[in-house]
Design a protein that fits this description.
Oligomer: single chain
Radius of gyration: 40 Å
Strand content: 25-35%
Helix content: 25-40%
Distance between the termini: 82 Å
Shape: elongated
Structural class: alpha+beta
Strand order of the largest sheet: 28-32-33-37-36-35-34
């Protein structure tokens, strides 16, 4: 938030420099992140002087140029070549002298130098108003008042203003400081604490009176919960033109581009007092009536930025007598009801809208305006009428308007100031130091917190309406502390702390798996649990009714809690691939969230994402892409590390996979993994294969809960490997060979592996060839050839009998 120091001085007449004032603001909790010097005219017209054109003759070598001699009040007149059609002898003009820095229409600087133009010397430049930043006209040079003194600096003629602007990092709770008056009010409390008692000067509205009652608008509010207060007044005979220079300078200093006097005045009062205002063209309001209501879901409305938006039935809308929408209340005006150069009468609005409702509307439509910024955080409901009068008087003064109606003020239930009791004992305990009671009372008085009653133990207080963040005793103590000064609190030189260490079984298991995956080249990710509600449309297994949505979301992209870890993981994959990091291995421990029959459920998951090369590209390694079997191997090793074996493999029913399987133990699904289908990857702009595994971590934790890890000695005797090439029917699967092998030889057979599959024209129709390896080992002795041959013959006979296998 930008705060102009010159503007602040309208409320507090201090002679402190900006740096010192910034330090005090920071001590008060309004952290000053930077101070910038702002000039009302860039360059402050340095080097520009008032000159008098003594002679003006035609340039001998150019039809459009004139040779002038100009008196700059510095001795001998200088010769300047000028191309303006209106230059003539006897004129007083602004002249940029040699060495002056000017700025073009894009803000780029250029320096005035001595030079020759078509053979004639030129010692400066006679300027147009756009060249000086004093206007937009370039029709000719500026012709000034003939009474001006020759040689006088132009900065003194045009009242150039230099300002220091504070960039304040305002915390969301400090809605009272969202204006210059609010900051000045806080600053005054800081000055009082430093024994400087300054008067807080507030703008006067004592001259407010109705000129004529010729244009009255009725106001009707349908939902008083959404709009507790609504004020309005009509002003006729307004002339829409540029705002006075001093208002434009104030707005420019804080980064607001002036538009016209009506809009600029509403913006000025907004940043002066913190109360948003809106001006409607009165002629565009049908039926001389303002309706504050909710419109039907999906109603079309075009806002000032010329974007057509679909309204929600929860949006507060300002409408005319025929329910035509004019403005999204507290957020953005409508294109058709705004003030233009043809406007002659306005309806000026000043209201208090429900902060939660405005915030939802602003986020729903992705709009962030100065008005919504303040309404969302809560403004002072008692400032509504005062700010309206302030703006009306300014419009009357600078737009020639007449106040044509009494103020319409809808305020059915007055909002009472909050009452809090402050215990001295609690304040001493929380602050950590005993502050004198008189000091506490002086601080409260400086913050305009009224003391209603006083006892030996504490104070009964009334909190002003603009302090929406002060509702508890602890809030009062915090106010006392920040004004008293955190630096004034003594602190102990002894540091006491406790170390938090989670030694639970679940955490230990999670760390074991995390360490294993990290050793395999994986990186851990931590995605936001909040995500887009629309992601559920990418899978038929996800149900919209199960979405857990935020009541007050930060944005539409962070509106719902995720039902799956898949989509947030794909966002991370896409982010990295877009930055040329194509080989990725990610894992994440996270939760999914679901709503079933108004009850909520959280499930813990472990997700894996694998894409690109298995290893980092190097001259020492060959390119080897990650695939389905590589990912399955990683999953298997993770489960084996946890003591989970003998898994059942079945095709997955998840529609996010083009190929996928489910690993189960009995009836318990442990892992679903596979290759993500291309149509889903396209939604994230991913053009390479991505493998995804989803572990049901809650179930895995139950399985590993009471298991002890068995440790065995390394075998002393060698293993023996034998291979069989089997001709089989195409319908036979490897798992049938695997199961039969271990049924045939349970003691000495250690591993069975499929290392080649062949299907081609050289084989009979309906047949395929499996090359299977068998690993044999005896833990007590070295296997003899006869024993090995006997086992292999037994295996061959088993396959021939049960699978009709033929040895190739």
């Amino acid at each position: 938030m930008k705060i102009s120091y010159n503007w602040l001085k309208q409320f507090l007449q201090t002679d402190w420099d900006a740096v010192k004032t910034g330090e005090l603001l920071t001590d008060l909790g309004l952290e000053v992140e930077g101070i910038e010097t702002i000039e009302s005219i860039k360059g402050s017209l340095k080097g520009i002087v008032i000159g008098e054109v003594l002679t003006c003759i035609q340039h001998p070598n150019a039809d459009r140029l004139k040779i002038t001699t100009v008196d700059l009040g510095q001795g001998e007149p200088v010769q300047i070549i000028c191309g303006a059609p209106n230059v003539a002898a006897g004129q007083k003009v602004p002249v940029a002298t040699i060495g002056t820095i000017l700025y073009d229409d894009k803000g780029a600087p250029f320096k005035i130098k001595k030079g020759k133009i078509r053979g004639e010397e030129s010692h400066g430049m006679i300027c147009a108003e756009d060249e000086l930043g004093l206007g937009s006209s370039h029709d000719g040079i500026m012709i000034l008042d003939e009474t001006l003194e020759v040689g006088k600096p132009a900065a003194e003629v045009f009242n150039i203003e230099t300002d220091q602007v504070f960039e304040i990092g305002l915390t969301p709770n400090r809605s009272d400081a969202m204006s210059h008056f609010g900051v000045a009010r806080d600053l005054r409390a800081g000055f009082i604490q430093n024994d400087i008692n300054l008067e807080l000067i507030s703008p006067s509205v004592s001259d407010f009176h109705v000129d004529e009652r010729t244009l009255r608008f009725d106001v009707e509010v349908e939902n008083k919960e959404q709009t507790p207060r609504y004020c309005g007044i009509t002003i006729t005979d307004v002339e829409v033109k540029d705002a006075p220079e001093w208002i434009q300078n104030r707005l420019k200093a804080i980064g607001i581009t002036p538009k016209n006097n009506i809009v600029d005045i509403t913006n000025y009062v907004l940043h002066e007092l913190g109360q948003p205002l809106h001006a409607f063209d009165a002629q565009k309001i049908k039926g001389n009536k303002i309706l504050v209501k909710n419109l039907a879901e999906g109603t079309k409305f075009t806002t000032l930025d010329e974007v057509e938006r679909e309204l929600s039935s929860e949006d507060i809308m300002i409408c005319d007598a025929e329910s035509n929408p004019l403005c999204i209340a507290g957020v953005f005006g409508g294109l058709k009801s705004g003030v233009t150069e043809h406007t002659s009468a306005i309806f000026l609005e000043s209201a208090y809208f429900n902060p939660v409702s405005v915030r939802k509307t602003a986020k729903r439509h992705a709009l962030n305006t100065d008005a919504s910024f303040r309404f969302e955080r809560g403004i002072d409901i008692n400032m509504t009428e005062y700010a309206l009068k302030r703006a009306a008087l300014l419009i009357e003064e600078y737009a020639g308007g007449k106040l044509a109606s009494d103020i319409s003020d809808f305020y059915p239930e007055k909002m009472e100031d909050f009452q809090v009791f402050l215990s001295y004992e609690n304040s001493y305990r929380l602050i950590g130091q005993e502050i004198p009671k008189e000091t506490i009372k002086n601080i409260l008085a400086s913050l305009e917190i009224k003391i209603n009653s006083e006892t030996e133990g504490g104070l009964g207080l009334t909190i002003p309406s603009y302090r929406t963040d002060v509702q508890r005793e602890a809030d009062i103590i915090e106010e006392i502390l920040r004004v008293y000064g955190y630096n004034n609190i003594e602190f102990s030189h002894k540091l006491n702390t406790s170390i938090s260490f989670d030694s639970s079984k679940d955490t230990k298991i999670e760390n074991v798996v995390a360490n294993q995956l990290t050793a395999l080249g994986f990186n851990e990710t931590m995605a936001n649990s909040l995500t887009k509600p629309s992601y559920i449309e990418l899978s038929e297994q996800l149900n919209e009714a199960a979405n857990v949505e935020m009541l007050n979301p930060l944005s539409n992209d962070l509106k719902a809690l995720r039902q799956s870890l898949l989509f947030s993981g794909l966002e991370s994959v896409a982010y990295n691939i877009n930055r040329k990091n194509n080989s990725l291995k990610f894992y994440e421990f996270g939760k999914t969230y679901h709503k079933y029959n108004e009850k909520y459920q959280e499930n813990k998951h472990l997700s894996l994402f694998v894409t690109g090369n298995r290893t980092i590209d190097s001259w020492k390694t060959t390119t080897n892409n990650s695939d389905f079997f590589y990912t399955k191997g990683i999953i298997t090793t993770v489960l084996q590390r946890l003591g989970i074996q003998n898994l059942k493999t079945t095709p997955t029913k998840q529609d996010v996979f083009s190929e996928g399987v489910t690993l189960s133990l009995g009836k318990m699904k442990l892992v679903e993994f596979g290759v993500i289908k291309n149509t889903l990857l396209k939604e994230f702009g991913i053009k390479q294969e991505v493998l995804f595994a989803d572990f049901n971590w809650d179930t895995i934790l139950k399985l590993t809960g009471n298991k002890n890890i068995k440790v065995a000695n390394l075998p002393k005797f060698p293993t023996v490997k034998r291979d069989l090439a089997l001709l089989l029917d195409t319908k036979i699967e490897f798992k049938e060979i695997y199961n039969l092998a271990f049924q045939s030889e349970k003691k000495l057979l250690k591993e069975v592996d499929l290392f080649d599959v062949y299907e081609g024209d050289k084989l009979p129709e309906g047949k395929k060839s499996y090359a299977v390896s068998f690993l044999l080992q005896d833990d007590t002795k070295t296997l003899a050839d006869k024993q090995i041959d006997k086992i292999m013959q037994k295996l061959q006979q088993t396959f021939e009998k049960n699978l009709n296998a033929v040895l190739r």
